Amino acid sequence: MNQIELAKQRLLGTDGLPGLLAAAWDSFEVVMAVAAAAADQSADMYPALTLARGSAVSGRNAIAFAPSMPDGHAALTDRPPPDMSDVYEVAEAMVELASALSGSLRDAAGLAVDARDRAACQDAALHAEQIGRLLAGSE
Amino acid sequence: MSAAVFGDFLAAASGHLKAAMVDGSNHASSPEALVHDLYRLVTVLTHYCDDLAPCDQVEALSRNDLHPWERAAVDAAEALRVAADCLQQGTDRAVGGQSDAIIPHEARHLVAAARELAAGRDLLHTHLSIDSDGRTRARSEWAPVVTSVPVTRALANEITRWSRVLAPFTALLAHPAAWETPSYGPVRSLAGLACAELASASQWLHVAGAAARPALEADPAQAADTDLLSAIPSSMVAPRSRPSPGGESVAELCHGITISASRLRRAMQDSQDRARWSPSATSGGWQWMAQAAAITSHLSELALRAAGTRADQFASPPASEAQLNNVADLMAAMRAAWSQVDQAWDAIITETRLIQTPAMTDASDLLLRMGRLVWDDPQWTPARSRRAPPRAPAALAPQPAAITDVVAAVHHAVDAIAHVARSEIDAVQAAGGAGRLYVPTRSLPAECNVPRPFTPAPTSQRRALIDAYRAAYQASLQVALELDGLAVAPATPSRVLALARAAASVQSSRPRVLLELDYDHRGDALSAGAPFRHSRASTGQAGPVERAIRDRPAPDPFALPRAAAIDNAAHQLIAEAEGVTKPASNVPGRQTNRQRASPSAAQLAAQSFPNDLRERPPEEPPSRSAGETASVSRHSQGLRRQVR
């Protein structure tokens, strides 16, 4: 299982807002790392991957403003990065992860009690949706 | 419609002067009207020389550091001033003879020439302003060109040439025959006095014209100088040209890139000042700009490679494939450098997040058009980039001249990006100095146990960010210089960029334009080597104690206000001991605008906790003091008086 698959699994398997926020943080970090590695592999996808990486940074930073964000440090995964031989496949995998991120964060925003948690989740969900739009090539 | 440039006014003025010389060669009627309008024209020429002269004639005698053309401007200014005085005297005498004269054609041409030249001078002044300390400050990226030696040379050469043209014209007016009209019958004595003043004015105009002779021998004026002078635009920003959703031709895309690049350069002006306080200066915005610069570099590289392929198919292309590929290789390095800046922002954040700025809008337009130049999709966006078909080299440049257009578009884009890098080095340093940069503690190593979501960015991280910006600036500048080399051929659309960069590096000794605020020289009372030279209260920069706290891997935000207070007190104590400043209590209610306000305890505390913009009202920009407003107003009035 590679970084993207693991991040998605963690995201969908979490329970409670703090756990979701920690998993979302890690998922955004995975997008940042994979997009940076994939950007140099494809001339046509370079703009989309670069901006998707930026959206991942913004989404991750948005989560940091949530009061329910647990203390601690990013869980550095020792899983291998995805196979970069087909950048379009990697992009597809990131679109799926971004979709899962967006859905989880939207759900969490609906359930959060603290307004700042809600705002952070909604803000981060917007950035996740932007990652999906950029990498799906559907605009 | 293209923006007005100085050359428009110069050409119009020259046309009117030529017409006045032809029409006025026989001085058929109303010499008093001619004298009056000649006086106005010479006055405008005097103002031009005053602008170029770094000092007066008395001071010039004791200076040996003046450029020959600056000395020429000093001498010409003095001679023109005397000539104008003589013409004014002549006007007074002549009006004594007749006050209801019909204005002849030649006088109208003189008036028009004076008006065009005055408008041209106004245009040059739009690039400069005088600050509250009386220092000349840049208002646009053209300011260092306006104050450069090549522009000084071109302008002084023009003014002295005009003086040489006006001298014989005035001599003809000084001849008594010019006043032999029926209206002057009863007052010939007055006309005689006017002739004497005019003869004197003619002599002084000769002197003004001759002032250029030593300079012409030592440092002849070049055609490129005049080209550059003529190309100086007003500091007005061109209106935004939105990328058309219906698609644009290659020529339209190249033109649009030029406009977006010029707007982007202007949008970066004053970004350093804004970075200290403006909520719109954010880590998200800076990171986005770095990404846009990296993407534009990538797209420019592809455009140059396609242009290189096409160049190989022409018998005599404007640039060879090898030359274009060489620049494309440098663009790849430029992209890598900007990617480093982008990644350096991953772990640094400001208290407010991404807010769209005008610079981002222009950078976005630039990026879109560059993408549409490279890819064969009129609606290309980064989100539509997957498997985009590249534009065929033959479609990119059907004719050799189109290669020049593509290179010029890339040249403008790279030049704007170099401006972005330079401005953002200062802006990010200012934001760091103002304590606006943080790191999310979650991204720190596990041994940094900080029980808060954010902590001030450690000095090492800020330094790495600035180093990344410096590398990006150097890489961008290197590409810009390579493109300057390709653009120097006459009639190349971006030639003026190359001339401007070369000129800006050779500054005249006029009051230097402050292109950037030098923190080491602002409001700093202590000598360079003094301990506690910097403190928040004096220079706005972190003092040694605060720096020591910040240098820790996870600085304690509660310790920072205390450290700043210690630095402030130490600075004050040392300054008093050195006798360079009085204790603050000795000057109640007075704070010079060179001295930075000491941050309040609340401000210092606020530095420790970034807040979302939504949770606090936007800050107001620092208001202009009454003294500053009055000074600017005085300056504006002075300019208006001068060009009247």
Overview of the structural elements:
The complex is a heterodimer of chains A (139) and B (644). Chain A is mainly α. Helices cover 72% and strands 0% of the residues of chain A. Chain A contains 5 helices and no strands. Chain A has helices at residues 3-13, 17-39, 46-64, 87-111, 115-136. The longest helix of chain A is centred in the C-terminal third of the chain and has 25 residues, at 87-111. The termini of chain A are far apart. Chain B folds into 3 domains: 6-234, Heme Oxygenase, Chain A (Up-down Bundle), CATH 1.20.910; 250-381 and 390-444 and 451-503; 527-608, no CATH class. In chain B, strand 1 and strand 2 (136-138) form a beta hairpin. Chain B is flat, with a radius of gyration of 30 Å. The chains are: A mainly alpha (139), B mainly alpha (644). The A-B interface holds A 25, 32, 36, 39, 43-48, 50-51, 53-54, 57-58, 60-62, 64-65, 69, 71-74, 88, 91, 116, 119, 123, 133-134, 136-139 and B 283-284, 287-288, 291, 294-295, 298-299, 302, 339, 342-343, 345-346, 349, 353-354, 367, 371, 375, 381-388, 440-446, 451, 453-454, 612, 614.
Could you say which overall geometry of chain B the principal axes of the C-alpha atoms support? flat
Assess the beta-strand content of chain A as a share of residues: under 5%
Mean pLDDT value of chain B: 80
Radius of gyration of CA atoms of chain B, rounded to a whole number: 30 Å
Total domain modules of chain B: 3
Question: What is the rounded distance between the termini of chain B?
Answer: 28 Å
Widest sheet, order of strands of chain B: 1-2
How is the main sheet of chain B built? 2 strands, antiparallel
Q: Give the quaternary arrangement of the chains.
A: heterodimer
Secondary-structure element sequence of chain B? HHHHHEEHHHHHHHHHHHHEEHHHHHH
Total beta strand runs of chain B: 4
Short description:
With 139 residues, chain A is mainly α. Helix content of chain A is 72%, strand content 0%.
